[in-house]
What we know:
This protein is an alpha/beta fold. About 40% of the residues lie in helices and about 15% in strands. It folds into two domains: about 1-240, Type I PLP-dependent aspartate aminotransferase-like (Major domain) (Aspartate Aminotransferase, domain 2), CATH 3.40.640.10; about 245-365, Aspartate Aminotransferase, domain 1 (Alpha-Beta Complex). The longest helix is centred in the C-terminal third of the chain and has 23 residues, at about 345-365. The mean pLDDT is about 95.
Amino acid sequence: xAPFWTERFGNPASATHAQGWxxxxxxxxxxxxxxxxxxxxxPSEIVFTSGTTESDNLALAGLARARRGRGxxxxxxxxxxxxxxxxxxALVAEGFEAQVVGVGGDGLVAPxxxxxxxxxxxxxxxxxxxxxxxxxxxxxxxxxxRCRARxxxxxxxxxxxxxxxxxxxxxxxxxxxxxxxxxxxxPKGVGxxxxxxxxxxxxLRLEPLLHGGGHERGRRSGTLxxxxxxxxxxxxxxxxxxxxVEAKRLAQLRDHLWGRLVAALPDVRRNGHAERRLxxxxxxxxxxxxxxxxxxxxxxxxxxxxxxxxxGSGEPSHVLQAIGVxxxxxxxxxRVGLGRSNTLAQVERLADRLIGEVEGLRARRRG
Length: 367
């Protein structure tokens, strides 16, 4: 990224001089690598944005508003990221309909439940590839098959999935996919929306959220941040280079941590499906303990009680509520995310500290 901050400072939209051509070449090279990383048929199917939140908004609101007064219904699930659920609520205020499909106690949405929600007037289905709180991986290919049979496009927020598990838009049958750089150690402030160029012979039309310049083939105006775009592509390449090995390592660390906790503490629950989950995700509920109290005592660790976007709200996790976790257990649920820098020694230290603090808090509550 470094040269593009200073000596290679051209605007990729400047088509009349060498500095602009150089910047454009860097952007298009990154676009090609990102398209290849997710199995897109063409680089032109990648639209750069400021992050997954903007990509989700562009996918949902862009497709809805392009219908030009025809209305219609958006179908999504109860455990989606606020970038999807809040956009759905905003579209309802604009006159569209939104149908929220429930999930099972393991966090999985049933493909047949999505199919039943399609009906007449559905213009888009949005199902996240991997849930950021409980790590559950949704059956996207099966959902896509049902959507395709009804002629309804499928969007997926894959911010938590790209770079952690294999994602191939062709194999999965996805029509739109949102992802970003910072979830896989790239720079903050850049993301992308994959938009399938041709779907059943027709082009997916999106009404742009931003106007002014017609950048990104008219879908997202604004000068592109070349250093961030370049860093985005490189981060994805590095993540994919050892994806299988790293996923196996993280899953072993995660399972070791869970084994330590469940062996030492009674009344511990794992939230979300035991196997269909991100390799580095563990969401644990400790009965009789407030997660906020645990976090306050474990400041040397980066832990949370929910998604980063909602961690300061003080409200119970909508994801845990949706999978039926009782209120008391939801308040005692902690999300642990393991990544590239984490070691077995760190996991052992976390297990020791967690066990000690849970036992201490429970003892104080009893006494």
